[in-house]
Structures are given as structure tokens and as C-alpha cells.
Amino acid sequence: MIVLSYYQTHALVKFFTDGEIAASISPDLGLSEVGVELDADGVRFPGGERLSWSDAEEISAGEGRCYLLDNEGIQQIRVYSSQTNWSRNLHATEGAPTVVVSGFPMHRIKNTDPMTDTLAKIAAVAPIRGRVLDTATGLGYTAIEAARTASEVVTVELDPAALAICRLNPWSAALFDNPKIGQIVDDVYDAVDGFDDGEFDVVIHDPPTINIAGDLYSEAFYRKLHRVTARRGRVFHYVGDPTTRNVGRVTTGVIRRLQSAGFEKVVRKQDAFGVVANK
Fold first, then answer.
1. How many CA atoms lie within 13 A of 229 on its CB side?
2. CA-based Rg of the chain, rounded to a whole angstrom?
3. What share of the chain is helix, strand, coil (3-state, %, to 5)?
4. Which residues face 66 on adjacent strands?
5. Which of 64, 110, 263, 264 is in the most buried spot, having the most CB atoms within 10 Å?
6. Are both 134 and 263 inside the same structural domain?
7. How high is the mean pLDDT in each 10-residue block of the chain (279 residues)?
8. Are 60 and 129 within one domain?
């Protein structure tokens, strides 16, 4: 599988114009590099795959778009979900891509990147040990990073379209390859009812915005998380940019409801744009 964006293709045309007949390119959005041949017809990859110059120019013109290259040419990586009525497209950065859902990026990309954003969330609730619940799979980055030190990670995703995007994202491969990661496709509000009391040592709760998923910010849901969190366990709750007035109000409400649900020592984690609650 070859996945490309502007960051991989924008220099290729210039190389060929300058008379180069070979170059290096990442076939997986920056994870690795391979040597490719340049000729009048386009770019030849080591496996024989061909990228025409017209397709290379189309990719280069769509700075944030990611494209799958196959024998038929290129196709943008985007999915529409009839279940949620959300459109999703894989959005390139200089590092790990994010996913844009109905116009909103699901990771911080201003003055940071999706992987740094993910690592900040992991660091906020470290150490990650034992069993971990990841309440919103997204691109799987949180589950993948948590699985490095956890004994098991259970990740829940409402929308099958999100997993369809994951299968086309090279940075999400470990979501399907790592045996320590178990996936559930369901509304986490309901799925959490099927877990045992005190089952999880760490919970990472990174829901959509409160306007989209208000029930995942409710005291009733926080009580469910409290039940399945182990004694002395911790919950990281992503909220958003604490410097904005609206998120500041939301964070105040989140802290109050977490405390009402039974959590103690609810601490703001400014660098991770969230709070940590202790049981």
C-alpha cells in the first residue's frame, strides 16, 4: 500500500525538471523512504507501481489531502459515514496525519502535530500500566501508544468509517497488528456498561466536542467511568484549548461533574488540553 501527500510529492517534479532520474520518497506518509526512478511517464516505485506526473501534480496541489496509489491511479482517502452523517478525510501533516471530521481536525495541529498531541495525553496520565480503556479510537494513536507499556488496551469506536480510514493510514497499522489492542465498535456510552467494576487502571477519554457528543460529558457517563476505573486508577479527559473562553467554561463544568461522579484530585493538565481525575 502506497499513501502519498503533498509532503512526499511536491519536490519530485522539480527533481525531474532539473534532470534527475532518481530520488527518494516516503511511500507511507513519512514512516520510511524508498528509492524511485523518474522518467517521462512519471515515477516508478520499487514494486513496479507507477505515479504519473499529472497525478503527482494533483497530489501536490492538495496540500492537506492524502492519496492512495494503486494500479488504477490515485484516490483521495476520504469516507462518508451513513451512520453518523459525518465525512472523514485523512489530512496530511509533516509527521503523522490527522483525520478531519466534517471540517474539524481530530488532533491538535496548530504549533504541534498529531503524534506530539497524542504523547502529551499519554504523559498526562502516566504511568500507563495494567488494563487501559480508550473511549474513542479515532486513528488509533492513543491505543497504539498506550499499548507500549500497558498489559492490554480496549479501544471503542462508534463509527465504522473511522476504522476504514485507519486501515488506509500507515500510522495506524499497529491498531490491527498489536495483539494487546482489542477493538469494540459501539457507542462507548453503552459499551462501558458491559465492563466489570474496577476493570481499568487507566482510562483515556478523548471524545468529540461537547456540541457533538454531549452525553460523553455528562455526570451520568462519568459515573459509569468511575465504576469501571480501578481503585487508585486515573482518567485523562481531553477537553480542548484551555486559553479559549468557551473551553474554559466547559472545563469548569467537566471538573464539577467528575467530582460529583466520585472522582477526587481532578487536576488541570494545560499542556495536554485536559484534566486528570483520580479514584
1. 27
2. 21
3. 35, 30, 35
4. 5
5. 263
6. yes
7. 95 89 96 97 96 95 93 94 89 94 81 90 97 97 98 97 96 98 98 98 94 94 98 96 88 97 96 96
8. no
